[in-house]
Hints:
Layout: H1 2-19, E1 34-36, E2 42-44, E3 52-55, H2 57-61, H3 68-71, E4 78-82, E5 90-94, H4 101-104, E6 105-109, E7 112-113, E8 132-139, H5 144-147, E9 154-160, E10 168-176, E11 180-191, E12 195-206, E13 215-229, E14 232-246, E15 251-252, H6 253-259, E16 270-285, E17 291-306, E18 314-331, E19 339-358, E20 361-387, E21 390-409, E22 420-424, E23 427-440, E24 443-454, E25 462-464, E26 470-472, E27 479-493, E28 496-508, E29 511-514, E30 524-527, E31 530-545, E32 548-561, E33 577-587, E34 591-600, E35 619-630, E36 633-640, E37 648-653, E38 666-670, E39 675-683
Parallel strand pairs: 6-9
Antiparallel strand pairs: 1-2, 3-8, 4-5, 6-7, 8-9, 10-11, 10-39, 11-12, 12-13, 13-14, 14-16, 15-38, 16-17, 17-18, 18-19, 19-20, 20-21, 21-22, 21-23, 23-24, 24-27, 25-26, 27-28, 28-31, 29-30, 31-32, 32-33, 33-34, 34-35, 35-36, 36-39, 37-38
Amino acid sequence: MFRGKLAAKFLVLLVVVLGFLSFTCAEGVDLEKIVVTPYRYGEFLEKIASSVSVVSSDDIDNSNAENITDTLRSVPGITVSNWYGNGSKVAVDIAGFGEQAALNVLVLVDGRRINDVDLSGVDWSQIPLEHVERIEVIRGGSAAVLYGDNASSGVINIITKKGTGKPKVNLQAEYGSYDMNGQKLSFSGEVDNNFLFWLSAGRRGTHGYRNNTFNKNSDFASKLEYKLSDILLLHLDSGFYTSTYSLPGALYQVNIDQYGRRYARYGDDHVNNKDYYFVLGSKGELSGLGCLDIDFTYRKKDTDSYFLTSGLYTQRNKIESYGINPKYTLNNGFLGRDNKFISGLDLYRTFYNSDKYDQSNDSDLRNYTNINKTSISGYLQNEFSVFKQLVLLGGYRYEVARYAFGYHDNTLPPWNNPDIDSKIKPKMEAFNTGIVYNYKEDSSLFIDINKSFRFPEVDEFTYNDASWQQQLNTNLKPQSAINYQVGLRHTINEKFKINLSLFRMNVKNEIYYNADGGPTGYGQNENYDKTTHEGLESSLVAKLNSWVIFSGNYSFTSAFFDGGENNQNAIPMVPRHKASLGVKLTLPMNFIFNLTGNYIGKRYFLNDQANAYSQLNGYMIVDTNLSWHSKDLTVTFGINNLFNKKYSEYAGVLLSASGIYPAGSKFYYPSPERNFSLKASYSF
Length: 684
């Protein structure tokens, strides 16, 4: 093992050193043939030392997707858990992290981080599907070198639309089951080949499948790009998003038996959310000595949670984040070979404030929490072509995070509950080393070894004691993983293409929530001893003829504990088997028919680390749609869950009695039954 690590570090050092001998800016490449990879610059797919999937604009248009996570359901190796079925609370899992999946996948929009620093994860509904040009999924920890924290099991990079060509207006409307309706207006184009613009505004709402599962939101976004000269480009991205959504709670089997699957235990709990951001950046060539990009980012998110039925305190959270991200890229031949080098700094400063009030008196502040997080990191990575068919990759990142905690409780005198005032400064590193062999056009083999990590979220350090007073667990450690990945991308001919990859992740100090943990047994975030995540992902695309396209994929994931009291037990909420099948028919008179089936296998319930209970049943969901195109008008009618399957994407079990529910009671988040949608889009 020691020799293997030494060899990997030597390869990283060798490839990186070659990067310092490069002296020109990265040249443009054909956007139709590349993806934005973990390298933070465009690269041809066949040169990527990682398993990558791309959800194209055609894939999005031909789906029944109502939000971004719906488009990911058919991607190999990804499991989606939509708690309430309305898009307000969704977890996307890569490589089998179960309950903590959302915290181990880094989500980017045009390279901008949108993961929150707290346990709320990613609010996927803040990114309207109409904004999306394509989605890139990079599996494994190879992206940790260039993106750092949260890129433990993979990165999802969402590329949004930008203005091109003659100015045009696009109108969209959609209607569907559960009183779903939405409208969108966008205006985009370019002026004199120097100024590109894209502006969009819209709203969307649904009452939801279950009682009290409404989700209403509105948004505005802009994307402006101005070319000052041949060597300097400026861009400004901004967005504003508001939403109101409900929190119906989970249902126990006794609730379902008595009231049905659409019942809500909490009929009035809801959340109001406001979120806005802007990104100001520049990209300039340094007179043949490379390219320098600098982005300045700002984001503010206000979330007010009202627990009117469940009886908890009213909670008002504010998160304010600043970021500075300079990046330097070089692309030059070395010894007659292609060579690309990238280095940069990432600096983020985040202020997290959480105030809790008596629900009957909004002015009665019960306690408040202030946590500031500062992270600074440096990275470098180099890609060297030994010869045309063989590419070596190496990179390294060092990241330091500083947490400053502050807590005050107004309900008890200071001598019973003193203020919390503490600081910690964890440090982590990542590396990446890979080899890609292009044995023929559009076909390649790759091997990648890397290290990734995740710092705890700011509120993962906190827990409640037996008196429900907040305490701080500074013993919680950052999580790290050594990842191995080998894969094949093979084009049989112009009609058939297959992908196959194998992976293994050896995770140390994986962070999870122990429902019976903590010094008083009331629950606490802790570190597992060791875990292993391994499996395979495969996919096939077959263009049988000009009007029939078949696609399919299968994934096997084994995520288990490696040591400790749960040794060799499966990690809860991770299915071992996942498969997808799809058929697209291009019919006469501009009609297109799509049929997609997604299978999710059995998995253990949330909290069942001991694997002591039966598993949550697997399910197969079939969706279909028929669309019609005529010049600038597109109309699509879709049916989701065609065979009306009754299932739950997320469920758990109580380890200890809670109120009237005894230990061992299982709880569910029922998913929607058969439902319909109608979408129309017109451009002029």
